[in-house]
Amino acid sequence: MAKKILVAVFSASGVTKAVGEEIARIAGADFFEIVPKERYTSDDLNWMNKKSRSSAEMNDPSARPEISGTVADMAAYDAVIVGFPIWWGIAPRIIETFLESYDFSGKKLLPFCTSGGSGVGKSDTALHKNVSGDVTWAKGVQINRPAEKEIRKWLDQVL
Q: For the domain with range 5-158, which CATH number is right: 3.40.50.1260, 1.10.3720.10, 3.40.50.1110, 3.40.50.360?
């Protein structure tokens, strides 16, 4: 496994957070929750309302929701596991905010997603454009529940 690992997740409903916390426990990693400066309400998350906050963000490729808090010492990490729910077939815009906020040069990035209906699709490779420098990307994976056996198998393959 990599020397020092960070698990950074955005979770709107708590599912992705639970999976991320289990990944961090198994990997012996630090955990960072990507929390929006303005938290999402249930109305904000109503994907059936084209005017909801999440719909507006996802329909605007330049949207970058602000994050509350920062990773204290990103340079200390060798690998960063980034977790997110799938929104409209891709990662929420706040993940782009996170990736554009740090220098990941020399690091391995390992995306995972949670989803009630769709798989990883191109969500992981779409994020490559948000990171510059010499970065090694692992193939994204969908992990919908904090299942230790499944997580260990994935970590053994990618770290």
A: 3.40.50.360
